[in-house]
Each structure stands twice: as structure tokens, then as C-alpha cells.
Amino acid sequence: MLASYLGYLFYGNLLILAVTYMYLYKNRKLIGFQLGMNLSNMAGGFIAIVTGVILIYQFPLKFVTITIITTLIGMAVGALFGSLFDYQTLLTGYANGLMMGIMAPMIGAAAKNNEIFLVFLEGVYIFSLFLLVLSVKHT
Amino acid sequence: MTMYLVGLLSINCLIGWIVYKVFYRKRKLYNDRFGMVMAMSCSGILSLNMSMIFQFLFVDHIFLGLVLTVLIGVAIGVAFGSLVKFQSLLAGFSHGVVGSLMGNMLGIVIKDPSICSLPTPYFQMIEKNMMIFSVFGSLLVLITILLVYYSLRV
């Protein structure tokens, strides 16, 4: 039943991420490099894991293409969030997004289209973005 | 196939050695933070790609390859991290171990797709997948090294 809504879920994740990025862009002067490093790590890693699991549920026959696409997405998002602050936060977010993106389709393939697992990952993703927004003003 | 994998592995070793020489010459310029970031990104991706190619090369010795590649990852991380301080040595060590374990996982899954319960058409294209993944990993190594090298100028 969940399988017919996977596309919308992916689109919604990207939309929430874009809103978070705009919020961080507005407040980027308040954030030091120590917090910026952790922020880019978290954003890149979690979007890579959720994207990998959703894509491998939707197209189970294209493992190779999905691994490459997920790695590129993780790298790009980590570098994008890191580039708000500094060149070295960019490198940190890039490396972490790459690692998580390579690992994510394997987890999704081993979970065998389990829907509860996807709901759990989605909850973790939303909670991580909530923490990320909360940590901007309260450091 | 074996010659191809050996060639890619030696290219990776060559890239790592050249980059280590270049970074060793400029090690007086680094502050603590740059040393940590450099050790994390370089050792992680290099040990990932080298352990993946190692697993493709030794098809029927999974355990031996695992132990050997984790030791190689530790060596790479300590070598890159010891350029600056103990803090960067710890970061390089942990990322080297994590990267080599993840590369082993990826290599074993590609060699035997039934571990991750991938569908049956994968059993016909194991060789093709090996070639695609090793080339992709080498490209990732090249991009990462270029980004880290570019950050010396920023």
C-alpha cells in the first residue's frame, strides 16, 4: 500500500530539506564552524540513507545505478550544506555523505520491502531535521 | 579481468603515495582543524576503494581479505593523521577502519548478491558490476583527492 506513494515521499523529503536549507541560509551568520561541521554531517548522511532506501524499494532491479545516484546525492547535499560556512565544512559533509550513500542501497535491499522500516527511517529523518533547526538558535 | 583489477589497485596505491608525499612536504602549513578534515576524507575514501578492489581480486578468501584490508586501512589512516597531531591521528584511524569495513561489505555483496537478497538477474552480470564499481570508486578517489588538494590554496 505504501509502495504506490514512494515517489511522493521522496519529493516531500527533498522539499523539507530545501526549507531547512533556506532557514539555515538566513541564519548562517549565527553558526560557528564547529556546529557547521556537525550540521553538514547530519544533513548529508540522513538524506542519503532515506533516498537510498526509497529508491531501492521502488526499482529493485537497478542496484548499480541506484548506488551511483545515491552517492552523488549524498555528496551534493553534504557539500551544499557545508558550503554555507567554510571550505573545510564542505569537505567534511562531502566525505560523510559519500560513505552513507554507498551504504544505503545495501540496507534497503536487505530489508526486503519492509514498510515499518521505512516509516521508522522517515521518523528518524524528520527528528534529525527538527534537531538541526532547533540547534541553530540554542548554541 | 585480473590484470585490470591489479592495474586499478596499483593506480590507487600510486595516487595515495603521491598525495602523501605532497602533503608531507607542506605539513608545516596546517592548523589542527585542516589536519583532521584531511585525515578523515583521504583515509576514508582511499581505504574504501582499496579494500573493495582487494575483495574482487581474492574471490575465495573472504576472511583473509577482510583482516588484511582492515590492517591496510589502519596504516593509511595513521600515516595521514600523523602528519599533524594526535587528534588528527585518532580521526584518521577511526575513519580508515570504518571505510575499509564498508568497502569489504560492498565487495562481498557484489560478489555474492544472495546475501542482500537481490533478485536473480544479478547473478549473470557479476563481472560487469565489478568493473563498473571499481571504475566508479577510482573516480571518487580522484575527485576527493583533487578537492583536498585544492583546499591547500583556499
Describe this structure in words.
The complex is a heterodimer of chains A (139) and B (154). Chain A has one domain (2-137). Chain A is globular. With 139 residues, chain A is mainly α. Chain A starts with 5 loop residues before the first helix and ends with a helix. Chain A has helices at 6-26, 33-58, 63-82, 87-110, 115-137. Chain B is mainly alpha-helical. Chain B has helices at residues 2-25, 32-57, 62-81, 86-111, 126-150. In chain B, helix 2 packs antiparallel against helix 3 (62-81), helix 2 runs antiparallel to helix 5 (126-150) and helix 3 runs antiparallel to helix 4 (86-111). Chain B is elongated and about 55 Å long.
Q: Span between N and C termini of chain B?
A: 41 Å
Shape of chain B: elongated
Give me the secondary-structure category of chain B: mainly alpha
Cα-atom radius of gyration of chain B: 16 Å
Beta-strand content of chain A: under 5%
Instruction: Provide the residue-averaged pLDDT of chain A.
Output: 88
Helix content of chain B: over 70%
Task: Write the element-wise H/E pattern of chain A from the N-terminal end onward.
Answer: HHHHH
* Count of distinct strands of chain A: 0
pLDDT averaged over residues of chain B:
87
Strand count, sense and barrel status of the largest sheet of chain A are: none
**How would you describe the oligomerization state of the chains in this entry?**
heterodimer
What fraction strand of chain B? under 5%
